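Retro notes, item 3 of 5
We never archived the inputs for the magnesium ion complex last cycle. Fixing that now. Sequence and ligand:
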Amino acid sequence: VYSREVESFAAKDDPVFRERAIDFADVELRLLQLLLGLQAESLDGVDRPAIIVARDLKPSDTAHLNRAFVRGFCTAEGGPLSHTAILARNLGLAAVVGAGEDLLAQVADDEPLVVDGTRGVVVVDATEAECLEYERRAAALAAVRASAEAASHEPAITLDGRRVEVVANIGLPGEEAEALQAGAEGIGLLRTEFLFVDRKTAPTETEHFNAYGAIFEAMGARPVVARTFDIGGDKPVGFLNMPREANPFLGWRAVRIGLAQPELLKTQMRALLRAAHGGDLKIMFPMIATAEEMQAARALYQEARAELLASGTPMAERVEVGTMIEVPSAAIIADQIAPCADFFSIGSNDLTQYTLAADRGNPAVASLFDSLHPAVLRLVDQVIRAAHAHGRWVGMCGEMAGDLTAIPVLLGLGLDEFSMGAASIPLAKALIRRLDVAETQALAQQALAQPGAPAVRELIVRWLTERQLL
Ligand code: PEP
Ligand code: MG
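Structure as it came back at the time:
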């Protein structure tokens, strides 16, 4: 059974799912070892400072690394989306994955080695001077991390006094606790797809309501931006009988489904309004491409509200209704959408994918998929300017918002709210506190004028290095 599952995952088109094959193979191996009474090979016996070099590491190997001694690891195979890489990020371990076959031949036991996870580099024969320099950098990084974590519950106020909102992305109930612990000032993106996967019928209003209650309770008066369901595309839903599409990412997904099946969308919005009673709810729609869609979605929101009002049901007051900006058309006509949206939240993942016509999960076009490309930056700039001209605030909830390289430029472009995975919050806040808005504005203007993403990255890295912010 396991072999079948492993083969089926390994054959998937989507790299995120493809890389789950090793997770299954891992569980299979552990079970067989237990059943056969074999001693599992283990990395928890490492008893002195070490770097693990392997062809690949299974997630369970990574989970069992002896944290007291393992300083980092590098693997010849594997990708950045693998569980092993995700665990390394969460554990704060230096890691380089997918370094290539040569790595194994080049490294001998007990040889000194440098793993530079920031740059994705493995240095095999580092000179003494290089080692000293890396030790200095590692110590500086550890100190920055420690002080960022100690201050993670303080607000992020720039050197010249601008307060920037730093909030979290969550995708499952329960994650709000982690977000609060990391210093989130609210939720900037509550993904609600979890309610729709693996179901034969649509979730009921009660099911929606029960799922959201604990989140609003934990967040109290802090803002929660809930995104209505973003199903379809690569996340087909059984009960909708969706036709097979040639281009699912350009097909029937997200708010397009909600507008075609209004009851589905209104059910979710009624539940959100009820669950957020006494809280600070903001609702946004995914994949809005035109002003008419925004008007139609907003009209459905009004209907949902009126229905609750008619039945005397308690619900959230003063709810802002906005939209994600993640389709290039919406970014281009942001000035036409703004009158009908209370706020924007830029989905840089999809905005990058659609602007550069580069699938966000396809390694073959990974070098094209770069949110720092001036084409994406110019759209972000245009969206923020259009929103501010209409008195609207703008957030960002794509990966870019938590990227330390992108943050100075986004601040300089005038972004009001940064929403990111909880783990990124302490360092993002710490960086914002060390920035001066006027300086970032000059940097942002230079970034917009660069000929490509590598030039933008180089510019920012130089700028950060000059200010000793890297
Ligand atoms: C985005 O597209 O940037 C986004 C935040 O939405 P998702 O990643 O869920 O598509
Ligand atoms: Mg998106």
